[in-house]
Amino acid sequence: MLATLSPFASGVHYPVVPITEETKDPLAAVKVLIRDFLDRSDYRSPGSPCDQELRRKLTEELSAWPSDIKPTLVAKIMDGSCVYAETTYAHTTHEHRYFIALYTACLMYVDDLGERNLDAVKRFTSRFAKGEHQPDPILQRLAELLGRAHDLWTQFGADAIIAGTLDAVTAMYIEFTTQGMVVKPSATRFPYYLRTRAGLGPPYIHFVFMNDWRATPESYLQVLPYMEHWTLGTNDILSFYKEELAGETNNYVHLRTSAEQSSAANVLRHLVEEVLESAGTMDMLTSGDSELAALWQRYMQGYLEFSLKAKRYRLAELGYQP
């Protein structure tokens, strides 16, 4: 895992960036690196179907949320939550997919809530630990949802889902309160530390392994760090285009750029190599277990499909179709 922090990995692939004096594009390098990553990931669309019942239920759920939530946020939540559950977790049951979609909706809401009610985000974990009611109705919904995790996932998986959620909400609060913090050049491990806390890696990885798949985690325990690294890194790569368009700098690539005293394009280039290396390791680790290998491949292709389908990533602008 720590290899992701090395800025000078060997064997880095350098795709050609076509920029001319007449048509300079400040995002040309980003576009080329994203295309390079997708091409080398050997993406093959699983063609995951739209789950109409899932969308009906989530629409009904969101209609009961507070009326002061912006319609644009509701639309963003609806699209992201449903597409994520339909693609990345297409192998799970409808009950699991609805849990994942609603969970995703709640966390997307929390990410927005920090702009309006930071104290509610700050106190979520302490209130959850004490069994106290969450004054914000969506945070209360999230707390209730976590209480059902053990019904759908194994003891180990559900524990990781709950612990990872509490870590993430706490890290979201830290991100909101440290936006002006300058990352010191020597703090090269900090960007990945914060990313693993805020990125919701453990919950979304453990969602893959339903409670009736295998009762205990011994057979897949060693692949979890690589799945998490691949997932977080892939998100960082494929979301970077829309973040650059929006002028966002409070993300993993830019934090790492500051820590390593490098350029964003150079960090992104090395990140592509590191994530592809994790994918290769996953292939090796699962090669002796056909069921686990199939599950990994379905997850990987489904996650890439999600990234291309979700409107917020704007990857259709680069000519990609899910």
Brief overview, please?
The protein has helices spanning 28-40, 52-63, 71-88, 94-113, 118-122, 124-130, 137-146, 149-152, 155-177, 190-198, 201-206, 224-245, 252-260, 264-285, 290-309.
Number of strands: 0
Distance between the termini: 29 Å
Q: Which residues sit in consecutive blocks of at least 5 with pLDDT less than 50?
A: 1-11, 19-23
Q: Which radius of gyration do the C-alpha atoms yield? A: 19 Å
Largest sheet: none
Number of helical segments with 4 or more residues: 15
Categorize the overall geometry.
Answer: globular
SS-based structural class?
A: mainly alpha
Family: Belongs to the trichodiene synthase family.
GO molecular function, one term: carbon-oxygen lyase activity, acting on phosphates
Keywords: Lyase
InterPro entries: Isoprenoid_synthase_dom_sf, Trichodiene_synth
Describe what you observe in this structure:
Belongs to the trichodiene synthase family. Keywords: Lyase. This is Linalool synthase. GO terms for molecular function: carbon-oxygen lyase activity, acting on phosphates. InterPro entries: Isoprenoid_synthase_dom_sf (IPR008949), Trichodiene_synth (IPR024652). This protein is mainly α and 322 residues long. The protein has one domain: Farnesyl Diphosphate Synthase. The protein is 62% helix and 0% strand. It contains 15 helices and no strands. α9 crosses α10 and α13 crosses α14. The longest helix is centred in the middle third of the chain and has 23 residues. It is globular. The protein starts with 27 loop residues before the first helix and ends in a 13-residue tail after the last helix.
